[in-house]
From TrEMBL:
PANTHER family xrefs: HTH-TYPE TRANSCRIPTIONAL REGULATOR, LYSR FAMILY TRANSCRIPTIONAL REGULATOR
Residue stretches spanning the membrane: none
Superkingdom of the organism of origin: Bacteria
Pfam families tied to this protein: LysR_substrate
Stated name of the protein: DNA-binding transcriptional LysR family regulator
GO molecular function, one term: DNA binding
Keywords annotated in UniProt: DNA-binding
Similarity comment: family membership: Belongs to the LysR transcriptional regulatory family.
InterPro entries in the cross-refs: LysR-type_TF_proteobact-type, LysR_subst-bd
Stretches assigned to the LysR substrate-binding domain: 58-139
Length: 147
């Protein structure tokens, strides 16, 4: 009680002497404080319960942006199985090699190749892709001749 009374700059919400409450009657400030606390706790419980309903299947629209090659070769072939497994999810798939602004373009997640510029966004490495350079023999000869 003493810590609460020190923290709230008003008349003590619960009159006390040390850690012993002398009476059960709340002051008007204490009653207002208590009412606000009850509303905060109820709001917090409601917010937490939004995400605890594990019996519900995932549903809603998911906006995803991918580089063209990854979208075409890896993600697009896997979409039918994903959509069959999660029929309540609607995928809005953007396939572009340009960097999109996730906030302005209302994109939920994006997959990018390479290093990210400094950003406040959260990024996680997913996998490494091997990089190989290939050229036709004729082009390789031209490069060697110009070197």
């Amino acid at each position: 009680m003493t810590m609460l009374n020190e923290r709230v700059p008003a008349k003590p919400p619960f009159p006390d002497k040390g850690d012993v409450v002398l009476r059960r009657r709340k002051t008007p400030d204490g009653a207002a404080f208590y009412g606000r606390c009850l509303r905060l706790i109820a709001d917090m419980d409601e917010t937490e319960n939004l995400f605890r309903q594990s019996t519900m299947a995932p549903a809603g629209t998911l906006r995803v942006d991918l580089p063209a090659r990854i979208g075409r070769l890896i993600v697009a072939p896997a979409l039918p199985e994903f959509l069959e497994r999660y029929p309540q999810i609607n995928i809005e798939l953007g396939i572009t090699d340009r960097i999109v602004n996730l906030v302005e373009d209302r994109v939920d997640c994006a997959l990018r190749v390479g290093l990210l510029p400094d950003s406040d966004l959260v990024a996680r490495p997913m996998f490494e892709l091997p990089l190989i350079n290939v050229a036709s023999p004729a082009y390789a000869c031209c490069l060697q001749a110009s070197a």
